[in-house]
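Human: If only I could read backbone structure tokens as easily as an amino acid sequence. Take your time, and here it is.
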Amino acid sequence: MLNKIQAADSMLVEAIKEFRNDDSQISYIKSILLSGAVIGITNPLLIEKGLETSIGEVANLSVSLSHNQFNSHKEKETYKRRTISFLKYVYNALKHSGVPKDSIQPSDDLEIECDLKTEARDLIMHAKTDMEKLNLSHDDLSEDLLSYFLELDFEP
């Protein structure tokens, strides 16, 4: 039986290794996809516990910096969702081609302009923060991941 927390642990370790060991586009792409998959496991668990996700915290900060320019709670939540979507844009763009709801054909959606290294670093940090927020026991985490977590001033 596969435990998704253990899978997330392994994927985050691999994302960090890829990021650190090779300065190539494909390594950054692997890091982005692996970190995004970790977030896909951790975010629902955090929400279930009533905790905010790392990306959600950034979106909340963006909302608060908007100086209450919203006319309703619905507008505020829409802005927050759009901010979260923006923060996950590169991850989602790497997973899919085409945007049917916006009538964008797959063949018209084959290029992404971004800084892959920055995107990989940011998603690794969000995934790391979310794993930490789950407050798992050390028995639930691999030695490799714990060693990365224990590094001072962790930078991927």
Observations:
- The chain has one domain: 4-150.
